[in-house]
Protein backbone atom coordinates (compact mmCIF):
# COMPACT_ATOMS: atom_id res chain seq x y z
CA UNK A 1 0.00 0.00 0.00
CA UNK A 2 1.56 3.29 -1.13
CA UNK A 3 0.22 5.28 1.84
CA UNK A 4 1.86 3.00 4.44
CA UNK A 5 4.93 5.19 4.81
CA UNK A 6 7.67 4.62 7.35
CA UNK A 7 9.21 7.44 9.39
CA UNK A 8 12.32 7.79 7.22
CA UNK A 9 10.24 8.34 4.07
CA UNK A 10 8.06 10.92 5.82
CA UNK A 11 11.14 12.79 7.07
CA UNK A 12 12.63 12.72 3.57
CA UNK A 13 9.40 14.07 2.05
CA UNK A 14 9.09 16.71 4.78
CA UNK A 15 12.60 18.02 4.09
CA UNK A 16 11.91 18.02 0.36
CA UNK A 17 8.69 19.97 0.96
CA UNK A 18 10.51 22.54 3.08
CA UNK A 19 13.24 23.02 0.47
CA UNK A 20 10.71 23.08 -2.37
CA UNK A 21 8.57 25.71 -0.66
CA UNK A 22 11.57 27.93 -0.01
CA UNK A 23 13.06 27.65 -3.49
CA UNK A 24 9.69 27.97 -5.21
CA UNK A 25 8.90 31.16 -3.34
CA UNK A 26 12.20 32.77 -4.33
CA UNK A 27 13.09 31.52 -7.82
CA UNK A 28 10.25 29.20 -8.79
CA UNK A 29 10.73 25.56 -9.67
CA UNK A 30 9.97 24.01 -6.30
CA UNK A 31 8.28 21.15 -8.13
CA UNK A 32 11.69 20.26 -9.53
CA UNK A 33 12.61 19.31 -5.96
CA UNK A 34 9.26 18.03 -4.73
CA UNK A 35 8.15 15.80 -7.60
CA UNK A 36 11.49 13.98 -7.98
CA UNK A 37 11.45 13.50 -4.19
CA UNK A 38 8.04 11.84 -4.53
CA UNK A 39 9.44 9.69 -7.33
CA UNK A 40 12.25 8.56 -5.05
CA UNK A 41 10.19 8.22 -1.86
CA UNK A 42 7.10 6.59 -3.38
CA UNK A 43 8.39 4.26 -6.12
CA UNK A 44 5.15 2.25 -6.10
CA UNK A 45 2.90 5.22 -6.86
CA UNK A 46 1.44 5.80 -10.32
CA UNK A 47 2.35 8.96 -12.30
CA UNK A 48 -1.05 10.54 -11.68
CA UNK A 49 -0.78 9.85 -7.93
CA UNK A 50 2.63 11.54 -7.87
CA UNK A 51 1.31 14.54 -9.80
CA UNK A 52 -1.79 14.86 -7.62
CA UNK A 53 0.14 14.55 -4.36
CA UNK A 54 2.66 17.12 -5.58
CA UNK A 55 -0.22 19.54 -6.27
CA UNK A 56 -1.57 19.15 -2.74
CA UNK A 57 1.81 19.92 -1.22
CA UNK A 58 2.47 22.76 -3.63
CA UNK A 59 -0.81 24.63 -3.24
CA UNK A 60 -0.26 25.02 0.50
CA UNK A 61 3.14 26.59 -0.05
CA UNK A 62 2.23 28.73 -3.05
CA UNK A 63 -0.80 30.14 -1.25
CA UNK A 64 1.37 31.15 1.70
CA UNK A 65 4.06 32.73 -0.44
CA UNK A 66 1.55 34.50 -2.71
CA UNK A 67 -0.15 36.12 0.29
CA UNK A 68 3.25 37.25 1.56
CA UNK A 69 4.12 38.70 -1.86
CA UNK A 70 0.79 40.52 -2.19
CA UNK A 71 1.24 42.10 1.23
CA UNK A 72 4.87 43.11 0.75
CA UNK A 73 5.34 43.66 -3.00
CA UNK A 74 1.79 44.69 -3.97
CA UNK A 75 1.95 43.38 -7.56
CA UNK A 76 -0.29 44.90 -10.23
CA UNK A 77 -3.43 42.75 -10.01
CA UNK A 78 -4.72 44.07 -13.34
CA UNK A 79 -2.30 41.65 -14.97
CA UNK A 80 -1.97 39.09 -12.18
CA UNK A 81 -5.67 38.20 -11.94
CA UNK A 82 -6.25 37.60 -15.70
CA UNK A 83 -2.97 35.68 -15.80
CA UNK A 84 -4.20 33.46 -12.97
CA UNK A 85 -7.63 32.91 -14.55
CA UNK A 86 -6.07 31.85 -17.87
CA UNK A 87 -3.67 29.60 -15.97
CA UNK A 88 -6.60 28.00 -14.13
CA UNK A 89 -8.35 27.12 -17.39
CA UNK A 90 -5.13 25.84 -18.95
CA UNK A 91 -4.38 23.70 -15.92
CA UNK A 92 -7.83 22.10 -16.02
CA UNK A 93 -7.15 20.92 -19.56
CA UNK A 94 -3.64 19.78 -18.72
CA UNK A 95 -4.75 17.80 -15.67
CA UNK A 96 -7.26 15.90 -17.79
CA UNK A 97 -4.37 14.82 -20.05
CA UNK A 98 -2.21 13.74 -17.10
CA UNK A 99 -4.10 10.44 -16.88
CA UNK A 100 -2.66 9.53 -20.30
CA UNK A 101 0.99 9.68 -19.19
CA UNK A 102 2.53 6.22 -18.92
CA UNK A 103 4.87 5.13 -16.12
CA UNK A 104 7.60 4.43 -18.68
CA UNK A 105 7.43 7.96 -20.09
CA UNK A 106 7.37 9.74 -16.73
CA UNK A 107 11.06 9.61 -15.76
CA UNK A 108 12.39 10.68 -19.19
CA UNK A 109 9.96 13.61 -19.31
CA UNK A 110 10.92 14.76 -15.80
CA UNK A 111 14.62 14.37 -16.64
CA UNK A 112 14.26 16.47 -19.79
CA UNK A 113 12.50 19.25 -17.87
CA UNK A 114 15.10 19.13 -15.09
CA UNK A 115 17.99 19.49 -17.52
CA UNK A 116 16.31 22.19 -19.62
CA UNK A 117 15.43 24.40 -16.64
CA UNK A 118 18.84 23.81 -15.05
CA UNK A 119 20.66 24.88 -18.22
CA UNK A 120 18.44 27.95 -18.58
CA UNK A 121 19.01 28.90 -14.95
CA UNK A 122 22.78 28.68 -15.37
CA UNK A 123 22.71 30.54 -18.69
CA UNK A 124 20.74 33.52 -17.35
CA UNK A 125 22.27 34.49 -13.99
CA UNK A 126 21.17 38.12 -14.20
CA UNK A 127 17.67 37.59 -15.57
CA UNK A 128 15.07 40.03 -14.27
CA UNK A 129 17.41 42.39 -12.45
CA UNK A 130 15.72 45.43 -14.04
CA UNK A 131 12.10 45.99 -15.06
CA UNK A 132 11.38 47.26 -18.60
CA UNK A 133 7.77 46.44 -19.48
CA UNK A 134 6.90 45.54 -23.05
CA UNK A 135 3.49 46.47 -24.50
CA UNK A 136 2.91 48.46 -21.31
CA UNK A 137 0.97 51.72 -21.11
CA UNK A 138 1.05 52.26 -24.88
CA UNK A 139 -0.36 48.82 -25.74
CA UNK A 140 -2.30 47.59 -22.67
CA UNK A 141 -4.47 45.16 -24.66
CA UNK A 142 -1.43 43.54 -26.23
CA UNK A 143 0.19 43.29 -22.82
CA UNK A 144 -2.93 41.64 -21.39
CA UNK A 145 -3.35 39.29 -24.36
CA UNK A 146 0.25 38.16 -24.02
CA UNK A 147 -0.24 37.58 -20.28
CA UNK A 148 -3.34 35.48 -21.04
CA UNK A 149 -1.38 33.35 -23.53
CA UNK A 150 1.40 32.85 -20.99
CA UNK A 151 -1.13 31.87 -18.33
CA UNK A 152 -2.93 29.37 -20.55
CA UNK A 153 0.25 27.76 -21.91
CA UNK A 154 2.12 27.44 -18.63
CA UNK A 155 -1.09 26.46 -16.85
CA UNK A 156 -1.63 23.59 -19.30
CA UNK A 157 1.92 22.40 -18.69
CA UNK A 158 1.38 22.56 -14.93
CA UNK A 159 -1.78 20.50 -15.13
CA UNK A 160 -0.26 17.76 -17.24
CA UNK A 161 3.17 17.61 -15.60
CA UNK A 162 4.11 20.49 -13.31
CA UNK A 163 7.81 20.64 -12.35
CA UNK A 164 9.28 24.06 -12.97
CA UNK A 165 5.95 25.82 -13.48
CA UNK A 166 6.88 28.69 -11.18
CA UNK A 167 10.17 29.12 -13.00
CA UNK A 168 8.44 29.04 -16.39
CA UNK A 169 5.99 31.72 -15.25
CA UNK A 170 8.86 33.88 -14.01
CA UNK A 171 10.94 33.28 -17.16
CA UNK A 172 8.01 34.15 -19.43
CA UNK A 173 6.98 37.24 -17.49
CA UNK A 174 10.56 38.51 -17.43
CA UNK A 175 11.67 37.58 -20.95
CA UNK A 176 8.41 38.22 -22.84
CA UNK A 177 6.73 41.01 -20.85
CA UNK A 178 9.83 42.61 -19.32
CA UNK A 179 8.95 42.40 -15.62
CA UNK A 180 11.62 42.61 -12.97
CA UNK A 181 12.30 39.42 -11.07
CA UNK A 182 10.52 40.34 -7.86
CA UNK A 183 7.33 41.53 -9.58
CA UNK A 184 7.38 38.48 -11.85
CA UNK A 185 7.82 36.17 -8.86
CA UNK A 186 4.84 37.74 -7.12
CA UNK A 187 2.61 37.31 -10.18
CA UNK A 188 3.93 33.78 -10.74
CA UNK A 189 2.91 32.73 -7.23
CA UNK A 190 -0.64 34.03 -7.72
CA UNK A 191 -0.93 32.18 -11.02
CA UNK A 192 0.60 29.05 -9.52
CA UNK A 193 -2.09 28.93 -6.83
CA UNK A 194 -4.68 28.95 -9.62
CA UNK A 195 -3.00 26.13 -11.58
CA UNK A 196 -2.64 23.96 -8.49
CA UNK A 197 -6.27 24.54 -7.54
CA UNK A 198 -7.46 23.62 -11.04
CA UNK A 199 -5.38 20.44 -11.12
CA UNK A 200 -6.67 19.36 -7.71
CA UNK A 201 -10.24 19.97 -8.91
CA UNK A 202 -9.56 17.18 -11.42
CA UNK A 203 -7.37 14.89 -9.29
CA UNK A 204 -9.28 14.85 -5.97
CA UNK A 205 -12.58 13.46 -7.35
CA UNK A 206 -10.55 10.74 -9.08
CA UNK A 207 -9.04 9.64 -5.75
CA UNK A 208 -5.52 10.28 -7.04
CA UNK A 209 -4.15 12.23 -4.05
CA UNK A 210 -2.00 10.39 -1.48
CA UNK A 211 -3.15 12.46 1.48
CA UNK A 212 -0.61 11.51 4.14
CA UNK A 213 2.40 12.26 1.96
CA UNK A 214 0.77 15.35 0.47
CA UNK A 215 -0.20 16.90 3.80
CA UNK A 216 3.25 16.28 5.31
CA UNK A 217 4.93 17.90 2.31
CA UNK A 218 2.34 20.68 2.26
CA UNK A 219 2.83 21.63 5.91
CA UNK A 220 6.57 21.95 5.34
CA UNK A 221 5.94 23.73 2.05
CA UNK A 222 4.00 26.38 3.97
CA UNK A 223 6.97 27.06 6.23
CA UNK A 224 9.38 27.08 3.28
CA UNK A 225 7.11 29.30 1.20
CA UNK A 226 6.72 31.86 3.97
CA UNK A 227 10.43 32.02 4.67
CA UNK A 228 11.34 32.06 0.98
CA UNK A 229 8.98 34.89 0.12
CA UNK A 230 10.29 37.03 2.97
CA UNK A 231 13.89 36.37 1.95
CA UNK A 232 13.10 37.14 -1.71
CA UNK A 233 11.59 40.49 -0.80
CA UNK A 234 14.51 41.32 1.46
CA UNK A 235 17.49 40.01 -0.51
CA UNK A 236 16.54 38.82 -4.00
CA UNK A 237 17.39 35.48 -5.56
CA UNK A 238 21.15 35.50 -6.13
CA UNK A 239 22.15 33.53 -3.04
CA UNK A 240 19.39 30.95 -3.57
CA UNK A 241 20.44 30.24 -7.15
CA UNK A 242 23.49 28.23 -6.08
CA UNK A 243 21.37 26.17 -3.66
CA UNK A 244 18.75 25.63 -6.35
CA UNK A 245 21.27 24.46 -8.96
CA UNK A 246 23.00 22.09 -6.50
CA UNK A 247 19.71 20.44 -5.50
CA UNK A 248 18.63 20.34 -9.13
CA UNK A 249 21.87 18.64 -10.14
CA UNK A 250 21.45 15.99 -7.44
CA UNK A 251 18.01 15.08 -8.75
CA UNK A 252 19.24 15.07 -12.36
CA UNK A 253 21.79 12.45 -11.31
CA UNK A 254 19.18 10.39 -9.44
CA UNK A 255 16.41 10.53 -12.04
CA UNK A 256 18.99 10.16 -14.83
CA UNK A 257 20.26 6.96 -13.24
CA UNK A 258 16.72 5.63 -12.83
CA UNK A 259 16.01 6.42 -16.47
CA UNK A 260 19.20 4.67 -17.57
CA UNK A 261 18.28 1.58 -15.55
CA UNK A 262 14.76 1.67 -17.00
CA UNK A 263 16.03 1.90 -20.59
CA UNK A 264 18.76 -0.68 -20.01
CA UNK A 265 16.20 -3.09 -18.54
CA UNK A 266 13.94 -2.59 -21.52
CA UNK A 267 16.85 -3.26 -23.86
CA UNK A 268 17.82 -6.39 -21.94
CA UNK A 269 14.26 -7.66 -22.03
CA UNK A 270 14.23 -7.20 -25.79
Automatic annotation (TrEMBL):
Locations listed in the record: Cell membrane
Membrane topology: Multi-pass membrane protein
The keyword Nucleus belongs to this UniProt entry's keyword annotation: no
Record key words, sorted: Cell membrane, Membrane, Transmembrane, Transmembrane helix, Transport
Main location: membrane
This protein's record includes keyword Phosphoprotein: no
Pfam families, alphabetized: TauE (PF01925)
Transmembrane spans: 80-99, 105-123, 144-162, 168-185, 197-219, 239-257
Domain of life, source organism: Bacteria
Homology family: Belongs to the 4-toluene sulfonate uptake permease (TSUP) (TC 2.A.102) family.
Name of this chain's protein: Probable membrane transporter protein
